[in-house]
Design goal:
The structure holds two protein chains of two kinds. Chain A is mostly helical. Chain A has a domain of 135 residues: Cytochrome c oxidase, subunit III, four-helix bundle (Four Helix Bundle (Hemerythrin (Met), subunit A), Up-down Bundle). Chain A contains six helices and no strands. In chain A, helix 1 packs parallel to helix 6 and helix 3 runs antiparallel to helix 6. Chain A is elongated, with a radius of gyration of 22 Å. The termini of chain A are far apart. By secondary structure, chain B is mainly alpha-helical. Chain B has a single domain, classed as Cytochrome C Oxidase, Chain A (Up-down Bundle). Chain B has 16 helices and no strands. The longest helix of chain B is centred in the first third of the chain and has 36 residues. The chains are: A mainly alpha, B mainly alpha.
């Protein structure tokens, strides 16, 4: 009589999705970078030897903030639509997210245009200019990168090339977008509330 | 007993492994193309290691020139400005382009093998990381050729490896020397961060069946801890370098003291990176020690969970000790006390680790092979390095010896006496796995003794001129200071180490062709990398392994007494 080897099945492990872990790690690294710029900004508040000062030239970008933060909501709705494979809803919400992000960028551009032409504040004017343009610029750079990636997914969705197995990837991208929004909350607080 | 799909070592389907190379032009191009475009973690690991060895030679030549200049009082072997360039390049090279990439190389090769998987989580990101690191180093070394070329050492950076502001500001550092430094570190920093993301993701998401987190080999654990520190420490450096470049190219004022900027904040930013960096380097060294010592003591590692916990707590504490590099800038008493105490707290988990290694040795059947010799030297030297570290953590003591050769001796004791020792141990231990041949034992022993003797001659003696008041980074000194003889001894020791390195490198080359055939498991070890062929096939494992304990190979060899 033949015997079967007694096998204790190895405990089934649910390993996390690698994209998610990698994105969280990247977010940790990015947070460290932003921390240094935020610390630099806070450290130099009121240290400029010459004007203009933040109180003189900065306005609260309320609408801009609302646009960017609501894009976190729309991207979440888009994700839910994608999970249900409601592709037209997905395209609508995803497109709305891109639109909101783009409006935010335009708002930043208008703010910078005003600062440079009207208030004559550039990155080399004083410490406020240096820290302000670096911190807000670094965040805007992240918005731009995010928008490019969102746009790529948008094109794929329009071409109906977004397969069900891509859902996980889209969710990872959404994580990045949420991070960019979170950073804005901090930048907003530091630059426009504490620093003004 | 559990069923495992892993074949025992020695029962592997032997391949006619050695591809008989015919050295035609087409073949060479094909091989080169293969290595440059590779995304295989083993090949990238080897690339990292070869690259770091090349850089080790470059950094070594620089330090030998520096030691010649310092061998006696009032010597003029080098012009002073070349001296400044050489010590800057030596420090930058050894930290960023030798110590970091060499461990990334080891980890690249070993982590997937140890976890029983076929590649790292993101192979293309991995290749990208390597080439970024490599281009960073090339950019840094191109600075020797820029400007007035090699004779005046070109436009090599000359601001010291920590590049204190405002010396690095455009007003004081003209030309492009500082730009080379900043750009090289930003570029290689992206490589390091990419590598760290890869290791963390691989360890958490890509493990073979049955490999729970607490069955991972300690080397993998320590690479994870090291990678977390890379994420949290290298990113601030990258940010600070961007600030420096904004100052230099866009007219910013971050570190411009004339416009209200602060030189101190650069010091903070740099050491927020700089101190965890030491732990980035020492963690993989701990990992190698935790693999080598058990195997050559014939005992399982003592206190595996304590080792993991101690590593994580060292990493955690190391993030809040940075200002002990800056006691002399005049912090408040509370600041001094905080950073002195937090630095000393690092000693506790480190002590746990040392005692665990000692307990592993205790009652073991110790084999004094070359990797074990280096590990024992590591234990002893790391202890002394830690003790001088505790001395320097005492703020008033630090005020006396800040920026003296005592500090230089202390951190070289860590980096050479502990980290480089474990790099050597790692080479002797895993060389058979990578090449299929053993490193020559006699040459290895010769390398070990020469290097350890040279090390102690150099760095034991180097503490004394430091206590006598010799500052670091000085070009020369007067006869009446009484530092001459001591410095001569230090220089002699440095050259003894250089001879040992030459023996080591020639051993690497000779053994590649003449070494004893190793077989899959020459050390009778217990982790998964020894179950596969030496060198492993491109796909690592013929069948994906299933493990039931932290020492899968022990279980296979001793089915009656599983772990």
């Amino acid at each position: 009589m033949s015997t079967l080897p007694i096998s204790v099945p190895a405990p089934e492990m649910q390993l996390p999705y690698k994209g998610r872990v990698a994105m969280f790690t990247l977010i940790a690294a990015e947070s460290a970078i932003f921390t240094i710029f935020v610390v630099g900004y806070i450290y130099y508040i009121g240290q400029s030897l010459s004007g203009p000062t933040p109180r003189e030239v900065l306005d609260l970008p309320i609408f801009n903030t609302i646009f960017l933060l609501s894009s976190s909501l729309t991207i979440w709705l888009a994700e839910r639509a994608l999970v249900r494979r409601a592709m037209s809803n997905f395209v609508a919400f995803w497109g709305l997210t891109i639109l909101l992000g783009a409006i935010f960028l335009v708002g930043t551009a208008r703010e910078w245009y005003k600062l440079i032409t009207v208030d004559h504040l550039t990155i080399s004017t004083n410490l406020f200019g240096t820290t302000y343009y670096s911190l807000v610029g670094l965040h805007a750079l992240h918005v731009i990168v995010g928008l490019i990636l969102l746009l790529a997914v948008f094109v794929f969705a329009l071409m109906r090339a977004l397969r069900p197995e891509d859902t996980k990837r889209v969710e990872v991208l959404a994580l990045y977008w949420h991070f960019v929004d979170c950073v804005w909350v901090i930048v907003f607080t530091v630059v426009y509330v504490i620093g003004r | 007993m559990s069923e495992s799909s892993m074949p025992l070592p020695g029962r592997l389907p032997e391949e006619s492994a050695q591809a008989t190379g015919i050295y035609t032009f087409g073949n060479i191009v094909a091989v080169l193309h293969d290595w440059i475009t590779t995304v295989d973690h083993k090949k990238i690991g080897i690339l990292y290691i070869l690259y770091s060895l090349l850089m080790l030679v470059a950094g070594g030549i620089e330090i030998l020139l520096i030691r010649l200049q310092l061998a006696g009082p009032r010597l003029h072997v080098l012009p002073p400005e070349v001296f400044n360039r050489l010590f800057t390049m030596h420090g930058t090279t050894m930290i960023f382009f030798v110590a970091m990439p060499i461990f990334v190389g080891f980890a690249n090769y070993l982590v997937p093998l140890m976890l029983g998987v076929r590649d790292i989580a993101f192979p293309r990101l991995n290749a990208f990381s390597f080439w970024m690191t490599a281009f960073g180093g090339m950019l840094l070394y191109y600075s020797f050729l820029g400007g007035t070329g090699l004779q005046g050492a070109g436009t090599a950076p000359d601001v010291g490896w920590f590049a204190y502001a405002p010396l690095t500001e455009p007003a004081f550092s003209r030309g492009h020397s500082t730009d080379f430094w900043a750009l090289a570190l930003i570029i290689s920093g992206f490589g390091s961060i990419g590598g760290a993301i890869n290791f963390i993701t691989t360890a958490f998401c890509l493990r073979c069946k049955g490999m729970t987190l607490f069955r991972m080999p300690l080397f993998v654990w320590l690479m994870v801890v090291s990678s977390i520190l890379v994420i949290l420490a290298v990113s601030p450096l990258t940010a600070a370098q961007f600030m420096l470049l904004i100052d230099r190219y866009l007219g910013g004022h971050f570190f411009d003291t004339q416009a209200g900027g602060s030189a101190t904040i650069w010091m903070h930013f740099f050491w927020i990176f700089g101190h965890p960096e030491v732990y980035v380097l020492i963690m993989p060294a701990f990992g190698i020690a935790s693999e080598v010592i058990p195997v050559f003591s014939r005992k399982a590692i003592f206190g595996y969970p304590a080792m993991v916990a101690a590593s994580v707590s060292i990493a955690f504490v190391s993030l809040s000790v940075w200002a002990h590099h800056m006691f002399t800038i005049g912090m408040s008493a509370a600041g001094n006390a905080f950073f002195a105490l937090s630095t000393m707290i690092v000693g506790i988990p480190t002590g746990i680790k040392i005692f665990n290694w000692l307990a592993t040795l205790w009652g073991g059947k110790i084999r004094f092979s070359v990797p074990m010799c280096f590990s024992l030297a590591f234990l002893f030297q790391f202890l002394i390095a830690g003790l001088t570290g505790i001395m320097l953590a005492v703020a008033p003591f630090n005020w006396q010896l800040h920026n003296s050769y005592f500090v230089v001796a202390h951190f070289h004791y860590v980096i050479v006496g502990a980290i480089l020792m474990m790099v050597f141990a790692g080479f002797y231990y895993w060389y058979p796995k990578v090449t299929g041949r053993m490193l020559d034992d006699h040459l290895g022993k010769l390398h070990f003794w020469l290097f350890v003797i040279g090390f102690h001659v150099t760095f034991d003696v180097m503490h004394i001129p430091g206590i006598l008041g010799m500052p670091r980074q000085i070009y020369t000194y007067e006869v009446d200071r009484g530092w001459g003889t001591l410095n001569l001894i230090v220089t002699v020791g440095a050259f003894v180490q250089a001879v040992a390195i030459i023996i080591f490198v020639s051993n690497l080359l000779v053994s590649l062709f003449r070494g004893k055939i190793a077989g899959p498991d020459p050390w009778d070890a217990w982790t998964l990398e020894w179950t596969t062929a030496s060198p492993p096939h491109a796909y690592n494992f013929d069948v994906e392994p299933v493990v039931t304990s932290a020492r899968p190979l022990w279980d296979l060899k001793h089915p009656d007494d599983p772990d």
